[in-house]
């Protein structure tokens, strides 16, 4: 329903070839743009919300933010784009399990804590973006630090399972690598999931000699300090590696559902949609996004659809 409201409200001309969500300093987007990919980034750093505004259009947890993130996806070049999600990991990392109460068997965590609830919402909405990217024929990747319990979260596992059903048992690949191979100041183990087997090439094997390299005085990476004084480190060589792999990843992407020989009527397809399991999709909160878009003054719902589009949900 959210996709339909966006299509009926905005120009969805295909133009973007690269999307980066949770972009941070945006080295990936900068390298992609330098390689002539039409790129766009999405991050809280890109908008300082005025105090009188209730919703931040660069916050995936806000109605306007998820609506804009979805609109970005709808404006990609169908079948020829890449998407990267560097999901905020603070609530899923092992250092936070004392607060989040997450584990591999209970990745949902203790939801009464705001940070846990927010982390769950961001991941569930990221999964919806992964679904959309797969259906549009794009290649996507979701990256997390080693030990993050993101990969055990029920909504993510259901997302991967559904892509398996469409593209086969190899439609989603997982790779683990040492960021030290890309001139990070520490070894820093990471993992990523993607719908392209080419993602495996990020792994450069065993990391050797990192203790000696760490004693060097030179700084092989850039340091970024945000408005709260927090230091973030993003190796540019890693961004270049992803850029070099992009064409191969697009050619080998999997999981896009095949269209039937005879397309059914859109209203019929809409009526046959199944309701998501509320025990899996616990914090996605799509009614707030729907209600936000339903009030859009630019919205022009076709007459034949008006009876199935309520003015408000909830």
Characterize the structure shown.
The structure is a single chain. The protein is an alpha/beta fold and about 325 residues long. The chain has one domain. The chain is built from 10 helices and 8 strands. α2 crosses α8 (about 235-250), α3 packs parallel to α5 and α3 (about 65-75) packs across α10 (about 285-295). The protein is globular and about 70 Å long. It comes from Cladocopium goreaui. This is Palmitoyl-monogalactosyldiacylglycerol delta-7 desaturase, chloroplastic.
Could you give a quick summary of the protein structure above?
The chain is an alpha/beta fold and 314 residues long. It has helices spanning 2-7, 27-34, 63-74, 97-100, 114-135, 154-167, 210-214, 236-251, 266-271, 286-294; strands spanning 18-21, 39-42, 82-85, 139-145, 173-178, 189-194, 222-225, 231-234.
- What's the end-to-end separation, in Å? 14 Å
| Unreliable sequence segments | 220-224
In total, the number of strands is: 8
Main beta sheet, described?
Answer: 6 strands, mixed
Shape: globular
Q: Strands of the largest sheet, in order across it?
A: 2-1-3-4-6-5
**Element-by-element helix/strand order:** HEHEHEHHEHEEHEEHHH
Radius of gyration: 20 Å
Helix content: 25-40%
- Average pLDDT metric: 88
**Helix/strand/pairing class, anyone?**
alpha/beta
Beta strand %: 5-15%
Question: Which features characterize this protein?
Answer:
314 residues; alpha/beta; 6-stranded mixed beta sheet; two-stranded antiparallel ribbon; 8 strands; Palmitoyl-monogalactosyldiacylglycerol delta-7 desaturase, chloroplastic
